[in-house]
Design a protein that fits this description.
Elements: H1 19-39, H2 42-74, H3 78-100, H4 109-130, H5 132-138, H6 141-155, H7 170-175, H8 177-201
């Protein structure tokens, strides 16, 4: 097996109390996983690609649930900024879905992977330039921490360690792996946000 180790958010044991810092670290994780897929072959490549697919799917779903709604409300011109980011994410998901159907040894795999990498990195740069600075300027540390907790809840759906476990099952068979993963991520994010809102107000959902 490969000696490569892909760092991921949490390796440095930093407190995840700032959603922007956490998302920036995830962007780094994604770049590292692309590197690992490109540098490996056979089972190692399949394993690295599996982890990349999971992290990308969960990362983008969390942003759609947390970052984009906040940016739409909080920044001038936010509606257009979010519209552009969603279009980028849609294109990347289409490529990701096509790749997920290929074996990593398929001769068409690497050209599509490189296209996906280019699109994902351009998307990440746009987020870091047009969304993330506005989030920091538009809210306080408590809200940054609340959003970070929700992203962490999503991240738990996609561990970037090797062999994260069996992900097949009835839901995946019906919805497809990516669709099922995104649905579970949405549920985790919404539960985390609801839980934190309850704590912030001193009331639970049933109060």
């Amino acid at each position: 097996m490969s000696e490569l180790h892909t760092p991921h958010a949490g390796d440095d044991h930093a407190k995840d109390d700032d959603v922007v810092s956490l998302l920036m670290r995830q962007h780094g994780d994604i770049r590292n996983l692309f590197d690992e897929v490109e540098a490996t072959k056979g089972d190692d490549r399949r394993d690295a690609f599996h982890r990349l697919v999971r992290l990308l799917a969960v990362h983008e779903t969390a942003e759609e649930e947390i970052v984009h709604p906040f940016a739409r409300r909080a920044q001038s011109g936010g509606e257009q900024v979010v519209k552009e980011r969603l279009a980028e994410e849609k294109a990347a998901k289409e490529t990701l879905t096509a790749l997920d159907d290929l074996d990593t040894d398929d001769p068409t795999f690497m050209p599509q992977l490189l296209k996906l990498r280019k699109d994902v990195q351009a998307h990440a740069r746009a987020e870091e330039r047009y969304e993330f600075p506005h989030i920091r300027r538009s809210t306080d540390s408590a809200n940054l921490a609340t959003m970070a907790k929700a992203v962490k809840a999503a991240e738990e759906m996609a561990p970037t360690r090797p062999h994260p476990g069996v992900e097949s099952g009835a839901a995946n068979a019906v919805l497809g792996p990516l669709a099922a993963l995104m649905d579970r991520t949405k549920d985790a994010v919404r539960k985390a946000m609801d839980k934190n809102e309850g704590k912030d107000t001193g009331k639970g959902k049933d109060s």
